[in-house]
């Protein structure tokens, strides 16, 4: 293969009147242009030639042949009477809120769609979410939603009184779809919500509205968060009712001084429009954060007194400390190497440090702290033993009792049943590729039970409040998800909720070789997990091209025994066409392999991560001589796109082609919270940022590169790919670049986008990494 050959000669002249604009620039090279008539004919031939068990792009991305049904969201009721879900109404256009008993499957309609139909309407409210009051007499409906940053948190709220049948919209004369995070007080007599960066309380008897804050504006944010805190700390709902309903605790952000990022939308109107929002890139000014408490009846806010510059610390979690007089607050340093936990008195704001987690890299914060013993202790997750385990902490002294222990990680805590003394959680002590349900005694007696049967795969659960039942979903690499209702702790199957038989039959009919898990050893002796999929016409005496799928950063794990959806199917299609497909989890990924595994990439993203990928390739080539080392490709999206660039630029002799989707070529262009966590602060880590950024090594490109990015990406900005384009141009490196107008980070919006993207990737692969045995 001519690695750096230009394909510009294949271009036809641009039509008269066609101009190339800076933001929607499309380097329309042969693999990325609109399909020619020859390629269209080829695709048509592929569709009509479907041999038994053969896959096409249309099968995967433009049909429902492999579509997966998922259970309607279940909501376990506090009183243990069952769970509720949403079902289409037989009376009116809309959905009923229906209750089922998990054991008997007895069904009753708790709230009919008819009851949720406003006067004069011909249809019920569209339910995006709903919430019960504690006594169950009222239900709060979230509807008419709009996206705010990543999720749809803006909308309208209505409340239904189930006793009187009265249905009322909240917010008074508030503009449409401007309310956020509405929730009942514990007594069910009031609802608090955020509107346009202020917090309001509405009485459900008189429906009068009281503003608790009035200083919210473009830079002062009450009760919700800015882009970076939502994206990286998953902070959205920014206020909490006190257990006695007398106070509300809330976050306030001041984004003044945080640089504003501007995005251009060229496609939705006659003239371009701008989207601007505070976005702190590495080294820039963060929003100042503070936490206050205000009486619900009005009055002054008492601000919690926490040490340190509020722009150099993050208040990552806050909740009431098992009572109505104290808050439990987690405060991370900006470097994120220390997480300090404070008890704060709401009457005077004084704060007492209870415990801290300190590391030489980054410390984790803890979600869903659960208070026990009438608020005298709480549950905690810590990696202080070298693995993530559950602890019990005394509220007043900070003394810790170990609940789980061993050389394995707790992946997720699902339910704590204090009355029976058990905590239910997901873990996989024997292998990081699986996920199972366990429970452990809360008293620290080291009693541990695995509840999931001996069934390999990935198992997830929604556990009832009393932990007597669970909705259990499982899959593996060969089986699509199946959902069952089970009893606990015996894990007896009560009934199948979703079987997905049609999709499983379609998968079973595919012509493919079994996926194989394996381990290889990196140069320092560390074992890495991987999978390999061989061509359907595999002959071990011949050589085949290999394509690696990579993510490689701390928020993903690619090697796991679970159904992979479209990726599994696309990989299978490629094996049918004569490719080997593989993936490696390098050190630092989300694989549950302990503290040292996760922290080993600190200040070395793009260096040790890709070195592991390279070492794995070398070891695999030694083990399996049917791998053609002259035909090696790699691809990934987001962090995987960044690792793809690093592989191509750092090991040009090893990788012949790569496809980088929405990458971060220059790490200094990403946000403070994520990138500083893994790469350190500026200016002290400036040299590490330079070395670990792929753009620094762009001059080494020798293979074929496809670079893809959406111009509307508010997460990983198009700016980074533009800068990389300039760097490659400087060194006369030929490559292919495709810009998806106004698409976000996922590159999925717009009719035909997904099929177009995967078609482009497949064609680029075929052209630059020829399939088949040699």
UniProtKB/TrEMBL annotation:
Q: Which GO terms describe its biological process?
A: proteolysis
- Report the GO molecular function annotations: dipeptidyl-peptidase activity; serine-type peptidase activity
Domain Dipeptidylpeptidase IV N-terminal residue range list: 133-478
**Any Pfam family matching the protein:** DPPIV_N
- Spell out where the chain crosses the membrane: none
* Limits of the Peptidase S9 prolyl oligopeptidase catalytic domain: 570-769
Write the protein's name.
Answer: S9 family peptidase
Q: Which organism is it from?
A: Idiomarina fontislapidosi
């Amino acid at each position: 293969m001519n690695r750096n050959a230009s394909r510009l000669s294949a271009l036809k002249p641009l039509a008269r009147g066609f101009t190339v604009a800076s933001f929607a620039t499309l380097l329309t090279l042969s693999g990325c242009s609109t399909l020619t008539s020859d390629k269209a004919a080829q695709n048509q031939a592929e569709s009509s030639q479907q041999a038994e068990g053969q896959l096409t792009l249309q099968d995967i991305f433009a049909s429902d042949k492999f579509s997966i049904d998922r259970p309607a969201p279940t909501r376990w009721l506090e009183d243990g009477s069952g769970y509720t879900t949403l079902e289409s109404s037989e009376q009116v256009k809309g959905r009923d809120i229906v209750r089922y008993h998990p054991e008997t499957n007895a069904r009753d309609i708790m709230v009919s769609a008819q009851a949720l139909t406003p006067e004069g309407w011909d249809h019920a409210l569209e339910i995006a979410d709903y919430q019960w009051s504690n006594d169950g007499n009222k239900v709060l409906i979230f509807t008419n939603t709009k996206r705010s940053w990543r999720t749809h948190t803006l909308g309208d709220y209505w409340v239904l009184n189930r006793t009187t049948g009265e249905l009322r919209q909240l917010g008074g004369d508030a503009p449409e779809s401007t309310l956020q995070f509405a929730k009942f007080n514990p007594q069910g007599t009031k609802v608090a919500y955020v509107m346009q960066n202020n917090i309001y309380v509405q009485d459900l008897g008189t429906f009068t509205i009281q503003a608790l804050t009035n200083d919210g504006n473009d830079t002062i944010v009450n009760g919700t968060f800015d882009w970076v805190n939502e994206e990286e700390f998953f902070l959205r709902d920014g206020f909490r009712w006190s257990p006695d309903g007398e106070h509300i605790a809330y976050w306030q952000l001041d984004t003044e001084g945080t640089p504003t990022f501007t995005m251009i939308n060229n496609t939705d109107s006659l003239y371009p429009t701008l989207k601007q929002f505070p976005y702190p890139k590495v080294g820039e000014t963060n929003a100042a954060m503070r936490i206050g408490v205000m009486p619900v009846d009005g009055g002054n806010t008492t601000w919690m007194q926490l040490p340190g510059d509020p722009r150099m610390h993050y208040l990552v979690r806050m909740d009431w400390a098992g009572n109505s007089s104290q808050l439990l607050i987690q405060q991370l340093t900006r470097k994120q190497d220390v997480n300090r936990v404070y008890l704060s008195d709401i009457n005077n704001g004084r704060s007492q440090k209870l415990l801290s987690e300190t590391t030489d890299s980054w410390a984790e914060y803890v979600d869903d702290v659960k208070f026990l013993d009438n608020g005298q202790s709480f549950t905690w997750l810590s990696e202080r033993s070298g693995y993530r385990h559950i602890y019990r902490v005394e509220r007043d002294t900070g003394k810790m009792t170990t609940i789980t222990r061993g050389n394995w990680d707790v992946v997720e805590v699902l339910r704590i049943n204090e009355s029976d003394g058990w905590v239910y959680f997901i873990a996989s002590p024997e292998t990081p590729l699986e996920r199972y349900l366990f429970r452990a005694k809360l008293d620290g007696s080291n009693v541990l039970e695995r509840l999931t049967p001996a069934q390999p795969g990935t198992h997830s659960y929604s556990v009832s409040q009393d932990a007597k039942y669970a909705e259990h979903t499982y899959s593996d690499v060969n089986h699509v998800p199946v959902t069952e209702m089970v009893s606990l702790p015996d894990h007896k199957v009560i009934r199948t909720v979703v079987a997905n038989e049609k999709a499983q039959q379609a998968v079973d009919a595919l012509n493919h070789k079994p996926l194989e898990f394996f381990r290889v050893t990196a140069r320092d002796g560390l074992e890495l997990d991987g999978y390999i999929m061989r061509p359907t016409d595999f002959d071990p005496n011949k050589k085949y091209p290999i394509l690696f799928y990579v993510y490689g950063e701390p928020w993903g794990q690619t090697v796991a025994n679970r159904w992979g959806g479209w990726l599994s199917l696309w990989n299978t299609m490629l094996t049918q066409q004569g490719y080997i497909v593989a993936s490696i989890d390098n050190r630092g990924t989300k694989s549950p392999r302990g503290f040292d595994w996760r922290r080993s990439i600190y200040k070395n993203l793009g260096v040790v991560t890709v070195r592991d990928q390279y070492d794995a390739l070398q070891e695999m080539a030694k083990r399996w001589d049917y791998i053609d080392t002259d035909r090696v490709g790699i691809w990934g999206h987001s962090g995987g796109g960044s690792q793809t660039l690093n592989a191509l630029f750092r090991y040009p002799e090893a990788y012949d082609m790569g496809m980088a989707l929405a990458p971060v070529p220059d790490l200094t262009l990403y946000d403070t919270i994520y990138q500083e966590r893994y790469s350190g602060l500026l200016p002290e880590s400036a040299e590490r940022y330079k070395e670990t950024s792929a753009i620094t090594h762009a001059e080494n490109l020798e293979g074929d590169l496809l670079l893809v990015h959406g111009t509307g990406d508010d997460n990983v900005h198009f700016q980074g790919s533009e800068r990389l384009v300039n760097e490659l141009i400087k060194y006369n490196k030929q490559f292919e670049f495709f810009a998806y107008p106004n698409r976000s980070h996922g590159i999925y919006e717009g009719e035909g986008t997904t099929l177009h993207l995967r078609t482009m990737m497949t064609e680029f692969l075929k052209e630059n990494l020829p399939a088949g045995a040699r």
